[in-house]
Amino acid sequence: EGSGPVLLDEVRCTGNELSIEQCPKSSWREHNCGHKEDAGVSCTPLTDGALRLTSGKGSHEGRLEVYYTGQWGTICDDGWTELNTQVVCRQLGFKYGKSAPESYSEGSSGPIWLDDVSCSGKETSLLQCSRREWGKHDCNHQEDVRLIC
Known about the structure:
6-stranded mixed beta sheet
């Protein structure tokens, strides 16, 4: 049980929202609850294939990075298409996106995890797309994928 004011009640998220504030809910501080009804969550640790955008002006843009064996790495832009971008932006919780100009963010120094990624656009995760094996590439960090979702 928590203490202090109850701020939210009747929260009904679909899972596609970027924050709890976008979920349908009662007005702030309007509730019929006691602290015995406080909600709690347990977040799943990062798994291979998790994605993030870094070095942009916000969490919606920047260099695309993928998590693998405990380390974040980049994805090479060889053969990268707008369909790939749509899959990535959807996986990250956005409606759509576009490739960003190369000058958008500096190169990375970490591993290059993926190359020759090809999506049909219907995938829900980048790992469902065809690609080379993890860590197999013929790229440098000037070819890192950069996106704006």
